[in-house]
Design a protein that fits this description.
The complex is a heterotetramer, with two copies of chain A and two copies of chain C.
Chain A: H1 2-15, E1 17-22, H2 24-30, E2 34-38, E3 43-44, H3 45-53, E4 63-66, E5 69-71, E6 76-77, E7 82-86
Parallel strand pairs in A: 1-7
Antiparallel strand pairs in A: 1-2, 3-6, 4-5, 4-7
Chain C: E1 2-5, H1 11-22, H2 24-28, E2 30-37, E3 41-42, E4 45-54, H3 58-73, E5 78-84, E6 86-88, E7 93-101, H4 104-121, E8 124-130, E9 135-137
Parallel strand pairs in C: 1-5
Antiparallel strand pairs in C: 2-7, 3-4, 4-6, 4-8, 5-7, 8-9
Helix pairs in contact in C: 3-4
The chains are: A alpha+beta, C alpha+beta.
Pfam families (chains C, D): MoaE
Enzyme class (chains C, D): transferase
Protein name (chains C, D): Molybdopterin synthase catalytic subunit
Chain lengths: ~90, ~90, ~140, ~140
Amino acid sequence: MAFLLGAILNGILSIMLVKVLFFASLRERLGVGQVMLDTHEAISVQEVWQRSSGENVLPVNVLIAVNHTYSDAAALVQPGDEVAFFPPVTGG
Amino acid sequence: MAFLLGAILNGILSIMLVKVLFFASLRERLGVGQVMLDTHEAISVQEVWQRSSGENVLPVNVLIAVNHTYSDAAALVQPGDEVAFFPPVTGG
Amino acid sequence: MIELREMPFDPWQYLAERQVSQGVEARSGAAAIFVGTMRDFNEGDSVQEMYLEHYPGMTEHQLETLAASALKEWSLDDVLIVHRIGRIIPTQPIVLVAVWSAHRAEAFDACRHLMESLKHSAPFWKRETLVDNSVRWVASNTPG
Amino acid sequence: MIELREMPFDPWQYLAERQVSQGVEARSGAAAIFVGTMRDFNEGDSVQEMYLEHYPGMTEHQLETLAASALKEWSLDDVLIVHRIGRIIPTQPIVLVAVWSAHRAEAFDACRHLMESLKHSAPFWKRETLVDNSVRWVASNTPG
């Protein structure tokens, strides 16, 4: 019962969090790979960047994905969303 | 000795011949795959066609090769050369 | 089909086995393939190994999106994308893109477009280890 | 390298074995491949088999000329052309064109150009046997 309640609370809490991920050289520069932001309302990607990276200006060559889909700095992020910031991709 | 003489004569004779080849549907239409033309001097591909196929007009879609290299009806053929006529190629 | 592989693979052996099991080459008439292999030099330096980072979840999603987009744009029978992740050493294949179609122009167009799209949009990042053991991130892909 | 083959072959197995013996894929960084396979229909008819006639001497010479021309026009490490001759049945590969380069754009360009040139200029002629045992020559190749 206590376990069940904990699971439910955990579910509710994660809904009010925005998961922020940094990859590759950007992760190394910021010194952080993942940040959980607490928000009860929609916020812009720009604000997600400021609150998670501690930097005001989003570098122009940083790519943005919201829920695994490419997005931009003006996009609105909902609690429960996953936002990723990363440098130009170099696969293939 | 007789064998050697024969080989030499054969060599001399083949130098005065133009070997003419027909391929694929053209060979089937003409009913002949190879003709040896006897000539002591250079003749045009057009003349090779007339003398080997028995037809006056070289069809426009017939391709021409002289000594394994693409050529045209005006080209001059020397005794000893190999001339081939064939339809559009359909490999690959 | 999309596959991320942690272990080395031989693209030709991979295709030979796949052909036996699926026979799509036989039905299609035309197959266009691209294989990218790790070289032992880059930007003038000798590279002894490479680590290929990806974004679990998004990388698969992005490759699936590219494949679905190619299947929509061209008349294709099948699309295959295999990409290495993790530690890679020189001479190992990194990427295999294969496209099957009834028409060779569509196979060529789709294969090339898939490779370019993958290079520009699939979330992979190369970190090179040079022969002096120094480490650097590859900043951007070479054009075309 | 140019090869005319009377017997069926698996292009992927062929490339896998060649890779082991030559290792050119490892050195090059980029490989672009085209494989053309016999389908069991053409121009709306079911085809049960095909005979591929060639011009011994000229066919090899023409393929060598195409390969040499590609090596001259693009920066390539190697070119491979394998083409079937003789009796072919549906699902069998007819042609394999493979190009290795340090640059993917050159590999793609050269591979495609080689296939188009081969289709337009290599002396091969296809004679089809339909399911009613009637025989016909393929009049011309499909574009692109």
